[in-house]
Design goal:
four-stranded antiparallel sheet, disordered C terminus, extended
Amino acid sequence: MRVRPFCAALATGLLLTTMSVAQTPPPAQTSGTEAAQAAADVNPVVMKVNGDPIYASDIQFTAHALQLQAQRAGHKMTPDQITQFATEQVVDQKLLAQEARREKVQVDEKQLEQKLQQIEKRVGGHDQFVALLKQSGTTLKRYQQTAHDQELISEFKQSRIMPKVSVTDAEVKKFYDDNPKYFEKPEEVRAQHILIKVPPHATEAQKKEAKAKAEAARQRALKGEDFSALAKELSEGPSASRGGELGFFDRNTMVKPFADAAFALKVGEISPVVETQFGYHVIKVEEHRPPHKQALDEVKLPIRNYLTQEKVNEQLKELVTKLKSSAKIEPLEPPQAAASHVPSAKDNEKKGPHGS
């Protein structure tokens, strides 16, 4: 169950993806007035909303984010549709940021700075980040302003919209009763594992050594040693600190060799050594759960959160409609050019045993 986003604008993660693959070349190195003109040509102001500028890069980044979302959801959108939706969303974001300022909403500047520093670190440091922005036809100052606006809107939602929204127990139950398919759970098992990693380009000797370590761990478990203690001692996966605990999962959560082995075990059984792309595993199944429907008490909180967000989105939609009715929105040039080179993206996400 996912909340449908009202504004899928410049989320920092998607913005970074866009910058890293942007097709816009960096502006030529000039000076003075020529430099200013070159920068304007690369990232022109394409619209104004109540006098505030919207740049070509704003629409390009948002269009790319929308394209990623559409691809991952399996929806097909034409470039014109993407550009239209992106332009509408950028205008909506601008109006909400302006309203937040009128309401004197404050941003935690220290927290925002920490977020920006984390983003810079992820792309290789400050200089690399600035270079990526320049290559995409924008500047650090523009990016910081966009990030500030996003934080401003987020705080506006939390402090001004959320307090006006409430969801009753009756509404939660009605959603639960009306949408049974959302709460149907497939067959699941709860398991622990010990992982001995294998490097991506491991030699046969390295593989043999890793498999021998996994088999040695298995033998110790079969002789009665505590599996959790063994996982903490020997496992090389992130779940080691939890005693190899993976929680409940269904067949589609894990890579196939791991899932096949886990679902073939009875409760309390320990698997033979299992090879996957991550290395060699020893698995112990702790609990088996047949297909079932989750009880209302199990899902009250996520349902309430979902319905709350839906109501917040409706409030925002109504507010944006009201703001648009009195706003001065000036297109300075066709925004299609801003998103004419929206890069394609492939979803290379890989499934694994919770990355463990």
